[in-house]
Design brief:
Strand content: 5-15%
Order of helices and strands: EHHHHHEHEHEHEHEH
Radius of gyration: 16 Å
Number of helices: 10
Strand order of the largest sheet: 3-2-1-4-5-6
Largest sheet: 6 strands, parallel
Structural class: alpha/beta
Length: about 220
């Protein structure tokens, strides 16, 4: 039985991964660091503290992790103030599912950016629980944020369906015991092991109907 649906934000509702990559690439280059071939894949799902330390400690950025986090998030907030890149049809999908199940949001974005995105999309009141990994001990692929959102919704994680786009996000939700609908971004395909964890893989979030979720009972 499906008791709740828990969405990721970046890459599922908001096409923000390319914006994050652009902003962090430019930041690394401007502050003496070196972007690695696997950097973007590794960053996807990390909490704010985790990726800030990664840029500072491993990519050679000449700023403290605290400075990295504050300055990159400030630039992302500036981009969002100009335009939040909502994925076509994502808001309609969320509203359709909200008519049938309680909804949660488990995101690696900072709380500030989650609030900005949901406000711009008019979805603030649709989610019964929203949580950033900056408020959990570990980011994705650890299950912390999904377990916490299920707890806030008052449901067993095994009764939840999670909607994710990234490999680390799929791993996180699966580790929490949730059934996972994967909607991978065209530019960031799932790793084979993560793809194997998904109960369903869809080409676009617009394909996520109540019937697809109900079939996971």
């Amino acid at each position: 039985m499906v008791d709740a649906v828990v969405f990721d934000l970046d890459g599922v509702l908001v096409d923000s991964e390319p914006v994050w990559e652009e902003v962090r690439r430019a930041y690394v280059a401007a502050h003496g660091g070196t972007w690695q071939p696997d950097t973007q894949r590794r960053l996807m799902g990390m909490s704010t503290g985790e990726w800030a330390r990664y840029l500072s400690d491993e990519l050679g950025v000449d700023r403290t992790a605290e400075q990295v986090a504050a300055e990159v998030v400030e630039e992302m907030a500036r981009r969002y103030a100009a335009r939040v890149p909502l994925i076509d049809g994502a808001d309609e999908v969320v509203r359709r599912l909200a008519g049938r199940w309680p909804l949660g949001l488990a995101s690696s974005s900072p709380t500030r950016l989650i609030e900005a995105a949901l406000d711009a999309a008019g979805l603030t009141d649709v989610f019964g629980a929203t949580l950033s990994t900056e408020r959990t001990a570990r980011g994705k692929p650890a299950p912390d944020v999904y377990l916490a959102v299920a707890g806030r919704l008052g449901v067993d994680p095994a009764g939840c369906v999670a909607v994710e786009d990234s490999s680390n996000g799929v791993r996180s939700a699966a580790a929490a015991g949730m059934r996972v609908v994967a909607v991978p971004h065209g530019a960031y395909p799932l790793d084979p092991d993560a793809g194997a964890l998904a109960a369903v893989t869809l080409p676009a979030v617009g394909e996520l109907t109540p019937q697809v979720v109900a079939a996971l009972d």
